[in-house]
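[[Per-residue structure]]
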Amino acid sequence: MQILTTAILAAFVAYAGAWYFGMLEGNFALLLLLATVVTGCYWLAERFIFLPRRRRAAETLAASAIARREELRRMGIAQVDGSDDADLAQARGRILAQPWWLDWTAGLFPVIVIVFVLRSFLFEPFKIPSGSMIPTLLVGDLILVNKFTYGIRLPVLNTKITEGTPPARGDVMVFRYPPQPSVDYIKRVVGVPGDEVAYLNKRLTINGQPVPTQPTSDFFDEDAMRYFKQFDEQLGTHKHRVLNDDERPAYVPGASDFEFRSNCRYTVEGVTCKVPDGYYFMMGDNRDNSLDSRFWGFVPDKNIIGKAFMIWMNFTNLKRIGRFD
């Protein structure tokens, strides 16, 4: 078992190392599932096989010590050196102790299974890697994503097993990037199935109705070291802020040949799209600095991960901790 365990742990380390150094495209959900299954098997084996075996060995040792003392008494030796008790306790402790290969497998199972359940079915943490959601989310924000609001999904397969509440306009959603599903993206839901979404001359219209916006104070981007126009926007029940960059054109350059591209019309003014059934149109709040549905198309329901709702940490600005809209 030691050799087998060493090989298993070495495989996990090799996979994680290759992923870290960019030698392969890792899948944390799959890695966590495998870790849960493997440590769970060791935990069951420890509880029903290895631990009872060690206990029987300890009981045999204790019985042998008792038999030895009885034999000494029959020989007329009434007093036994007290060190025998200490030696016996140490020997029993060594027998009952978990070997290292069980400590690093069965011993970790309770922690790993809790993490697996929390991350797969309740909440998953993410780190904001880019500025596409500024000013709502900043680079370095650590956020929590609700995994059950839109329906619980099986880990790895992402198959929905409960319906939940459908995504609504204005929700901030994490999803698998359609051109590369191994990559997670975060954007705001702008169009739901059946909507006609138009973003023309940097104004958002849904089903022919302009989305209410109100100019507010300019936003200073510390990374870009410049100011951007900022607006309060009311999208569904969500009131949030968006940015516009006057130096960027209104048209959408370099849109890819995505599924249902025929549902979209591109002009010098921008883009108009009809959202197909089972799909969503996503945009970043940093409207002129966001690679979103205008460029790569619609997000299918099967790609949804969950609803982002809270910043749980930002190490450079603790005031950002809290819920967001």
Summary: The chain has two domains: 2-116, 128-323. Helices lie at 2-20, 28-74, 83-96, 100-103, 109-122, 293-296.
